[in-house]
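Project standup — Tuesday

K.O.: blocked on the structure for the chain from last sprint. Re-posting the sequence here as requested.
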Amino acid sequence: MSREQAEATFLQNNLLLISGKLNIEIQQAEVIQAKTWHNPEFSISEVNLRKASGVETSPPFFGHFGRNQQIAFELNQLIQTAGKRKKLIALEEVNVSKAEQYLEDLLRGLKLELRNQLTELQYVQQSVKVHQKLIENISILINAYNNQLGQGNISKAEYIRLKAQELEINKQILELIRQSNEVQKKLKLLLRIDPAVAIEITDDGFAKNPTHYQAAFIELVAENAKENRPDYKLAMLEEDYSNKLLSYQKAQRVPDLKFSVNYDRNGSVMLDFVGIGVSFDLPFFNRNKAGIKKAQISIENAKVQKEQITLAIENEILLSYKSLQQAIEFLNKIEIGYEADLDLLLENYTRNFTSRNVRMLEYFDFMDAYLNNKKIILEARKEVNQKVEELNYSLGKDF
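H.V.: unblocked you, prediction finished:
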């Protein structure tokens, strides 16, 4: 698959992202709950199980039940005052926004991990191809030397030395395959792919174009980076939540009202008594000072956290940009066409070595230089790729 296909699979299948979306739905359910009114309360009391005698005769409720008996019904409804319900809804709505930003922050971190793992897998795959190219050349030489050895034209020591070099490169390939397996294990978890499936990423997107990352444009994007960063938005939401919490805690000082309607049969001078009432706490001792104080401290703490995150964002952007520029500067030191020249030179060395125009030691020295230079080129491209993703991460968006 390509990098784009891998990222599309990640967005659809990643279990952590699915869990984050479910957390948003949980918070949305809390908003629904906050919008509901308190249930009315119904009670039956003053029921005498034994029928009273010597009292005024009273008719039954139905059949023979309730004749000359006392019974009371009461219906209560709690009414929240000082806009508590509205303030609670506002708090829960902020929690929904926070859950959304938690998901965005999770996505930002997982994207960085995914893209770096894709880059690492591309690097390993291309390194394997470089080593396999050497193995192909050495295999040709080994076949030729085997024929020459049978004719007595070369010593067995030269043949063994060539086989040893082949074995050494095969060992390096095995180590690269082990690295690939480790990277694939992480990718399969991110993409939720069957462990038995092998992943191969196309080479597209491995080599970035350094000219896209101009300083002036990056500085312009950096100015608005805070608006794109979910951690900064979370800090803003924490401050908003603390302010709304303070308003809610202050509202707790105002007692709620409980209205009641009651019916009493045979409980007073009246056979059927219907009355209404209201009850509320007297806020003499508990004025919710602790809750208000905690909310006020939360506001101050949220402001400090926001300032800390702002400072961290500015430092992250500067560091990631400098690191990217350094990686680009090193990559630009590699001349255009240098890699193609290396491949052409390898073919010439192999041909001259076959023709006995180049000694074995000289050929092996060039082979080591070829591998080292190929590794440097691939690592330089990988470094630019990784630093680009770090810059995207610090800016809070794909640059």
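K.O.: great, moving the ticket to review. The longest strand covers residues 71-79. The chain has a mean pLDDT of 90.
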